[in-house]
Amino acid sequence: RAGKEGANPVSLYTSNMNLDELKRFELLRDLPGAIERNEFFLLYQPKVNAWTGEITGAEALMRWEHPTWGVVSPLDFIPLAEESNLFIRLTDYLIEEVFRYLATLPKKVPISLNVSPKYLYHEQLLHTFESASERYGVSLHWIEIEVAETSQLDEPHHIVNIFSDLRALGIQLALDDFGKGYSSLAYLQQFQVNTIKIDRIFGDGVSENNQARAIIHSLVVLAKEFGLEVVVEGIEQMNDLLLLRQLDCKIIQGYLFSPPVRGEDFQEMMRCGTLVPDSIDDHETSEN
Ligand code: C2E
Ligand code: MG
Ligand code: MG
Ligand code: MG
Q: pLDDT tens digits for 130-166?
C-alpha cells in the first residue's frame, strides 16, 4: 500500500508485526467505532438472465472505507466482526441499508444479502426484517438471504425452523458458494431453500474444464428435480457464458456482466434493465 507506510512510523513494522498482522490489528481496533463513523457502504452486483442480459436481481456486498487502509474487503473484516458480537450490528446495518435502498428504487428487483450463519441464531432476526419492511414500506418478498453452505450450520433443527419462519415472511433463501463445502447435498435435503448459487470454483473457466462442466450439469439437473433456481457466480469469460447457456443455466452473476457497483450506478443500469456481456481485463478499477 504505497503512500500509507509513510504516515506511520516504521517502528510498528520492526516491532515484529508483518503488514498482514498490522492490518488485522488496526482493523480489529477500528471496527467497533466504524459503524458510527459511517465507514461501511454497500455495492450491488447484478444477477442477469444468461440469454437476454435482463437484470433479475442484485447481491448487496459490503465494503469498509477505512481511513488509512482504503476500501477493505468483507473477506478481511467479516471474520473479525464474527469474533465478537459486532457482526450483529453489522448485519443490522446491512438489513437497514438494503431496505433504505429498495425504497428508493422506482422499479424494484429482489436484493440478496449475505448473512453469517451465526446471525441465524440471533433472537431479533425476524423482528429486524419485519421492522425494516414496515418502516420502509417494502415487502419482504424483495429480500433474499444468502447463507454460505461452507460455514457450519451446526444445529440443523434450529436452521430448519428459522428458514421456515423466514420463508413464511416471504423471504427467499439461497445456499451460497454451493458445492464448495463438504455437506452441500445434505443441506439441500434438509433446508428448503429457493436457490443454489454455484460457487465460482466451478463457473470460472468452465468452458475449458470438463469436470466443472459435468458438475454444473449435474447440479442443474438436481436443482430442477428440487424445483430450485440456479445462479452461477464468478463468470468473467464469454466462452463460459456460452457454455452455461448450453447447460441451461438461466442466471449468471459475474464481472462479464458487471462488477459490484455503487447504488446509484446499479439504479442507472436498472433504467435500461439489461446488460451486455463485456470481457474486460481490469475489473478492480471499476469497482470503487
Ligand atoms: P459471496 O457471497 O460468494 O459473493 C461473491 C463474491 O464474488 C463477491 O466478493 C464478488 O465481488 C465476487 N465476484 C463476483 N463476480 C466475480 C467474478 O466474475 N470474478 C471474481 N473473481 N469475483 C467475483 P466480495 O464482495 O469480496 O465478497 C466476498 C464475500 O464476503 C462474499 O462472498 C460473502 O460471503 C462475504 N460478504 C460480502 N458482504 C457481506 C455482508 O454484508 N455480510 C456477510 N456476512 N458477508 C458478506
Ligand atoms: Mg453471496
Ligand atoms: Mg458465493
Ligand atoms: Mg464466495
A: 999 999 999 999 999 999 876 667 778 889 999 999 9
For ligand 1, say whether the CB of 254 is within 6 Å of any of its atoms: yes
List C-alpha distances in Å: 54 to 47, 145, 198: 8, 21, 20
**8-state DSSP, 88:** H
Ligand nearest to the CA of 199: 3
Say if strands 40-49 and 55-66 run parallel, antiparallel, or are unpaired: antiparallel
Per-residue pLDDT tens over the stretch 28-86: 999 999 999 999 999 999 999 999 999 999 999 999 999 999 999 999 999 999 988 89
- The verdict on pTM exceeding 0.80 is yes
Q: What is the mean pLDDT of the chain?
A: 90
CB of residue 94 inside a 6 A radius of ligand 1: yes
Q: For 87-94, which contacts have Cβ atoms below 8 Å and span 24 or more sequence positions?
A: 87/116, 87/118, 87/119, 88/119, 88/122, 89/35, 90/35, 90/40, 90/62, 91/115, 91/116, 91/119, 91/122, 92/128, 93/35, 93/40, 94/42, 94/60, 94/62
**How far apart are the CA of 71 and the centre of ligand 1, in A?**
14
| Distance from the alpha carbon of residue 235 to the mean position of ligand 3, in angstroms | 12
Distance 21 CA to ligand 2 centre (A): 26
